[in-house]
């Protein structure tokens, strides 16, 4: 029991020593600009919910296809990572749209991550 508690204390001390202080304060920490290729997405600017839903489903389907493709799963380029992020973001945006809620954050992420996926494919 003493060995377990010593191990736990040692692990905690190592984690705290290596911490930069940003982990607990997400708002104040550094922000990576993953969406440098996209500002406010075209999806957010789309007013027609039917058209918006079709566009989101199209992006989601493309992202799912890429994320399931062995070509990209085993690629050294980060296409699979962005495809995985896009399929989740687009899936969330689609879920919100099914409840007639237009969530701008998930729509921006959906388009951004899909654009990044395509960017790394070429």
Note the topology:
Elements: H1 2-18, H2 42-45, H3 49-67, H4 70-73, H5 79-98, H6 104-121
Helix pairs in contact: 3-5, 3-6, 5-6
Task: Give a quick precis of the structure.
The protein is mainly α and 122 residues long. It has helices spanning 2-18, 42-45, 49-67, 70-73, 79-98, 104-121.
Descriptive notes:
This protein is an all-alpha fold. It has one domain (32-121). It is built from six helices and no strands. Helix 3 (49-67) packs across helix 6 and helix 5 packs antiparallel against helix 6 (104-121). The N and C termini lie far apart (55 Å). It comes from Mesorhizobium australicum (strain HAMBI 3006 / LMG 24608 / WSM2073).
Please tally the helical runs, counting DSSP H or I stretches of 4 or more residues.
Answer: 6
Mean pLDDT: 80
Structural class: mainly alpha
**How many angstroms does the end-to-end distance come to?**
55 Å
How would you describe the shape? elongated
The level of helicity is 55-70%
Spans of at least 5 consecutive residues whose pLDDT stays below 50 are 10-26
Number of domains: 1
Keywords: Signal
Organism: Mesorhizobium australicum (strain HAMBI 3006 / LMG 24608 / WSM2073)
Protein name: HdeA/HdeB family protein
Q: Features of this protein?
A:
122 residues, 67% helix, elongated, mainly alpha, 0% strand
């Amino acid at each position: 029991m003493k060995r377990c508690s010593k191990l736990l204390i040692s692990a905690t001390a190592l984690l705290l020593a290596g911490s930069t202080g940003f982990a607990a304060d997400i708002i104040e920490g550094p922000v990576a600009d993953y969406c440098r290729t996209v500002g406010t997405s075209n999806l957010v600017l789309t007013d027609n919910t039917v058209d918006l839903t079709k566009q989101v489903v199209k992006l989601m389907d493309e992202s799912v296809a890429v994320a399931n493709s062995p070509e990209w799963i085993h690629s050294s380029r980060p296409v699979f990572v962005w495809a995985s992020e896009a399929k989740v973001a687009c899936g969330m945006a689609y879920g919100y749209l099914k409840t007639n809620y237009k969530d701008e954050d998930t729509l921006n992420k959906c388009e951004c991550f899909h654009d990044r996926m395509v960017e790394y494919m070429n």
